[in-house]
Specification:
- By secondary structure, this protein is of the alpha/beta class.
- The protein is built from 22 helices and 25 strands.
- Strands 6, 7, 10, 12, 14, 15, 16 and 19 form an eight-stranded mixed beta sheet that branches. Strands 1-5-2-4-3 form a five-stranded mixed beta sheet, with helices on both faces. Strands 11-25-13 form a three-stranded antiparallel beta sheet.
- Helix 8 runs parallel beside helix 12.
- It is elongated, with a radius of gyration of 26 Å.
- The structure holds calcium ion (2 copies).
- The site of one calcium ion has 10 residues, from loops.
Length: 641
């Protein structure tokens, strides 16, 4: 079981990116995201027409070049390089003339600009070197895809793994419904939200709750779900947001307030167009969904047409099954999300669940999570004054952006993905949305059974699904008119329990739909594993009562409350696609690889890579305390990092 990232931490510092100085992220080296200093250097260099940087340290190269370009051109003089060149002290047109003069069929001007003295061109390596030495060329930089279509971009791996980026530029983006974020609040003033936070409600009954988001957690969650910050687009960057603040500045919340949040959403969903609700939190009392009030509350949302997305929790230890006994992630109707580690690639074939991502059976025998989404080494918005950012200065990767890990940040990938699905399929029920996400999930053969549910979400495929088979079909038989006369149906728990007790295969009805057979994962295996009568029997029927005493707090008091996500490498700068990977994903020409500077890495080990092998993260038994975790004896909800 891999507990850490191994050598992938080294790979990120390729020569192509340059060797970042401390505090500089890999992304900044080439893309400029979070690296205004780099861009400023470039601009100044051009403005003075007197290059200030020599990529290889040789004064013979006069032009500013993308870090690593000179070395790549030297190593591959006959190779093909797509670059953008800017002229210095010669008139517009001079550059094109130089390139036209090359005695080589490979040299080709692709674009000549009028607003600047510059061209886009395809050159050989030796031609790049010639022009870099010329003295009248200000800069030569890779013609890299620096901005995704639609003005929204995010070059982290997670938007590609989850498939959400496909929709950022489409007309459907504007139709994504409002997402309610039940969390610590949202800093609505940030550019990440572009005035799209249409309501902010404070339902915290604890003292010490600042307006906005004193903690910072909800802002990050909202950024992953629906941010539109430059270079930090979220899953549904056009969605409106409703902030329901239930957490104080230390990340504490009471279950009563979280239930009140569900009440508020139910009462206001039509007013604000809320069709998705994200709960990156869980209660601190193990319970059966038959009796838990928070489960009942989220079921009401589900039955009213609101897709409820819940984080599985971060109390897993060493990748072993933890069970998922806490509301609302233990509710079989809702979408419970585990944290996937993308492990340095956008393919899910090598993915595993993060070792702290909770999974296993609920007390009622349901396998959770249903699905996984990227949730490790995520980078998103964090207000500098939030307690989360102040506690982790080493995790800040750029001004106002921080790197965090947790199922809390996997859930909003799915919440935003659900919004994308509903933009195209507005009539779909929550069951259908869940079904489409599960049907089209990408399998993760390297992951332990059940640890990522059926696999990692692929929103692109889910949107394209003709319809989602119903993963809650068997449960639906027990959803009945409210005997109390309420407008919404209710789940008849007693009837379900009787049926399940008599017939262990009752759940198979959910997986009878022939559509499941087309899934990339094994629907037969999931059908038999998705509900365990043995787990249920041992948990529930061993004791006739569901009193708290049945579920001794002691068993959850220490280790399981440890916030193991907190033990992850806090100095990782995130999971960013490299240029070749991005070009391949976008169907663009692949920039040449460069390995010539590899030996330098050992001499200048970057801080993040060095920490990977020695950080507490490598000790899966490390138990860290965190103010965001509720004491087990309190009937409180715990905010997941
Ligand atoms: Ca708050
Ligand atoms: Ca991967």
């Amino acid at each position: 079981m891999r507990q850490d990232r191994g050598s992938s931490g080294d790979l990120r510092w390729s020569a192509l990116w340059g060797k970042p100085s401390k505090g500089e992220t890999r992304s900044s080296a080439l893309w400029g995201k979070g690296g205004r200093g780099f861009l400023a250097t470039l601009v100044v260099g051009i403005a003075l027409a007197a290059p200030a940087a020599y990529a290889d340290g040789s004064a013979s190269y006069k032009a500013y070049t993308t870090p690593g370009l000179i070395a790549a051109a030297q190593a591959n003089p006959k190779g093909t390089f797509d670059v953008i060149l800017m002229g210095g002290d010669h008139p517009t047109g001079w550059l094109a003339k130089q390139i036209a003069g090359f005695d080589s069929a490979k040299a080709k001007v692709k674009r000549q600009y009028s607003s600047i003295s510059g061209v886009a061109a395809r050159l050989t390596g030796s031609q790049v070197l010639t022009l870099a030495k010329n003295g009248h060329v200000a800069s030569i930089t890779y013609d890299s895809p620096v901005q995704l279509a639609g003005g929204l971009s995010n070059k982290q791996r997670w938007p590609f793994v989850s498939g959400v980026q496909k929709f950022w530029a489409s007309g459907s983006a504007a139709a994504t419904p409002t997402i309610a974020v039940v969390d610590s609040g949202i800093d609505a003033s940030r550019a990440d939200f572009g005035g799209r936070v249409v309501a902010q409600v404070n339902l915290s009954s604890l003292p010490g709750n600042s307006p906005g988001d004193g903690r910072g957690h909800g802002t990050f969650v909202a950024g992953i779900a629906a941010g539109s910050g430059d270079g930090y687009a979220g899953a549904a960057p056009a969605s409106k947001l409703v902030s329901i603040d239930v957490m104080d500045d230390q990340g504490m919340a009471m279950t009563r307030d979280v239930i009140a949040a569900a009440d508020w959403i139910l009462a206001n969903k039509d007013k604000y167009g809320i069709k998705v609700a994200n709960f990156s939190l869980h209660s601190s009392q193990p319970n059966s969904f038959m009796y838990d009030p928070l489960d009942k509350a989220v079921e009401r949302l589900w039955f009213s047409g609101v897709v409820v997305v819940a984080a599985a929790g971060n109390y897993g230890v060493s990748g072993q099954p933890s069970g998922v006994p806490f509301a609302p992630g233990n509710d079989p109707f809702v979408i419970t999300v585990g944290a996937d580690d993308v492990d340095g690639s956008t393919s899910t074939m090598d993915d595993m669940a993060a070792p702290w991502s909770a999974y296993g059976y609920t007390l009622d025998g349901f396998a959770k999570p249903d699905i996984a989404a990227p949730g490790r080494y995520m980078v998103g918005p964090a207000s500098p004054n939030s307690t989360l950012a102040l506690e982790r200065p080493e995790s800040v990767v750029a001004s106002g952006y921080i790197q965090l890990s947790g199922t809390s940040f996997a859930a909003p990938v799915v919440a935003g993905g659900a919004a994308q699905i509903l933009a195209v399929h507005p009539s779909w029920t929550p069951d259908q949305v869940k079904g489409a996400l599960m049907l089209t999930a990408n399998r993760t053969p390297a992951a332990l059974p059940l640890s990522e549910g059926v696999g990692v979400v692929d929103v692109g495929k889910a949107v394209g699904a003709a319809s989602g088979p119903n993963p809650n079909a068997a449960l639906r038989a027990f959803v009945k008119a409210d005997p109390a006369g309420g407008a919404l149906p209710v789940f008849d728990a007693a009837s379900w329990a009787n049926t399940a007790k008599a017939n262990a295969s009752w759940a198979s009805a959910s997986w009878a739909d022939a559509s499941w057979a087309s899934a990339s994962w094994s629907s037969a295996s999931w059908a038999s594993a998705s509900w365990s009568s043995a787990s249920w029997a041992s948990a529930s029927w061993a004791d006739a009562s569901w009193s708290d005493a049945s579920w001794a707090d002691a068993s959850w008091a220490s280790a399981s409350w440890a916030d193991n996500a907190d033990g992850d490498d806090t100095t990782s700068s995130g999971e960013w696609v490299d240029p070749a990977e991005l070009a391949a994903l976008l169907g663009l020409p692949v920039p040449p690889a460069d390995t010539s500077a590899a030996p330098d890495l050992s001499a200048t080990a970057p801080a993040a890579a060095a920490t990977d092998s020695s950080a507490p993260a490598s000790d899966p038994t490390a138990v860290t305390t965190d103010a965001t975790v509720a004491p087990a004896s309190d009937p409180a909800a715990s905010l997941l990092p």
